[in-house]
Structures are given as C-alpha cells and as structure tokens.
Amino acid sequence: MSAAGREKSESKRKRTKSGDSQAQKAVDSDAEELVKRVKALQTSEAMKDHEKDVLITFKKPEDIQQALDSLNTDLLIQGFMHLSEHLKICNNSLGEDATAAQRQHQERSQRVVYQWAALSDNFGTIEQAWQNTYTYSISRLDSLIPLVISQLLKTFDTAAGTKYGNRLAQVVLDKFMKAIYRALGMARSAACVACLQLLCHVAEFGRGEHADRVVRQFDWTLKGLAELANTRAVVVGLSVRRLWVRFVLGFFAAERCRTYNELLRVRSLVSNLFICVEKDSYADVHALLSAVYESIVLNEGVSRADKVRIFSVGLMGNLAKAARATGQVRLADVGVARAAQF
Known about the structure:
Elements: H1 3-56, H2 61-68, H3 73-91, H4 100-119, H5 124-136, H6 141-156, H7 162-175, H8 177-184, H9 190-208, H10 211-217, H11 225-229, E1 234-235, E2 238-239, H12 240-253, H13 282-297, H14 304-310, H15 313-323, H16 331-334, H17 336-341
Antiparallel strand pairs: 1-2
Helix pairs in contact: 2-3, 2-4, 3-4, 3-6, 6-7, 6-9, 8-9, 9-12, 12-13
C-alpha cells in the first residue's frame, strides 16, 4: 500500500474511533440522566410517603389517650385503627436510602408512644376497650385490639421501652387469656390470627422474658388446638398454621425460656405440627424442618430420649409423604442454597 493510501486509511480509522467515542459519551450521558431521573422520582415518592406519615401520626401522648378513651364503638374503632397506622411507622424498617427527615419522624413517633405509655395507668384504656369487646362481642375490635397490642410490644422491645412492654405483657396474661381462648376456638377468623400473633409477641418479648409464664399459664388441653396446626387458611395475610408453628417452637428458641421441656410432656403437641405436612408448600416444609432442627435437635437442653420420642414412626411417615411430593418448585421462590439443603 502506498504512503497516500496508508494516510487515508489511518485518517478513516481515527474518524471511526472518534465517532465511537462520541456515541459512547452520548450513551453514558443518557444513562447518567436516567439515573438522576430515577433518583429524583424515588426522592419524590419518599417525600410523598413522608408527608403522608406526618399526617397519620399522633403529635402528643394525650392524643393517643383521647383516641382510645371512648364508649362509642365507631370512634373506638377509628382510634385503634389510627394507633395501628402510627405504630406501623414506629416499627417500619428504614433502609439505607431513608432520608434524615424520615428517621427523625420515626424517632418522634416512637417517643410519643413511650410518653403515652408513661402516662397510661397500666394501659387502662386498652384493658377497658378489650373488656367491653369481649363482653359485647364487638366483631371488628376483637381482632384490632390484639393487633395493636402486638404492634406495641414490637415498639417496646427496645432498651428504652422494656418496662412498658413488660407491663403490657403482664396485662395480657392477667386479664385477657379467656378472650384469647375464645378467639383460638374460631380457627379461620381474623380474631384467631390476631391473638396467635399476640401470643407469639408476648412469648418472644425481651428474648423470652415472659416465655416461662406463658408455658405454665397457657391451657394446652384446650379443644381445637390440634386444628390450629392443620389450618392452612390465610386470614388478613397471615397463615394460622405458620403462626401456631411459630408459637410452639418459639419457646425452644427463646433465650430466657427454661421450661420448654414441659411442652414435650404435652401429648402430641410437637408431633401434631407434622400432620398432613405433605400439604405444605416447599418453603413451609423447609421452614418447619429448619426450626425443629435448630430449636430442638441442636438444643442441648433437650434430652436424647425426648428427641427420639419426638421423631416417632408416625412423624417419619408424615415426612416420607412430604418427600414423595412431586409439585414443581421455583428456585426463585426458595433459593438454590435452600433447595440444596432439602
């Protein structure tokens, strides 16, 4: 190739390279602009959510007291619903992208609840409202009040709120076990789900501070408890069976519980968790087996004889039925690592 040809070829190559570079810069610029727009949109949405949260929350502890202190059923329902929304903000897990305003607002919301608890006479307004609900069978409140108490226990499960949570848990155990038993007798009701959730929170509060009392006080001979283990109905987004499994096995995992071995003397309590286990989803079977393995099998406080007794021929037969299940499982739902463990 002549010198003129080489020069022409080199010039063409430089023009092509320059064009590619400009095109890449344009692509990068578009990408940066898109990222800025997405961030601006997210910030805008976060600000809108924050503005909504500010409108929802109580501003003073006296406002909470006033909302719950009413003999009018409709106003009482509104008051507990308002408090429930307030507590959702208190218990919301803020991510790394949360704004300073959101974090400050959550802290203020929690502070208002603590101040109300300090002013409250052993949560007398909640006690009176639930007593009236139990006496007059007020349908909406029989699930709303236990839900709010569960949310309060979650809010109080901190160093600053422990004393309030302990008082509230004691109120539940002293005053409302009959109401809870009645709700558990309606396995597919919202009240049953709310009370199961409440029992879980009471037993788990403070790393199991009240777990021993729950073990000894709860009536494990109630008719219908076996039905809870086999009720797969989902009510208000929660599974009755999952909550019952969480409640029973939670005692073995609670750090401060010392009486969990007494539950092994309750006939069929643990083994009933495996009845019709083949009907469970893959994820539920995995969760059940993992919980039993970690809280019972690896638990040095449970004797070897008790562990052998738990895994009876009947229980192993139920597991064999689950193992023969041929349903398809999406790895995206359970994860490759969890699939490998099963």
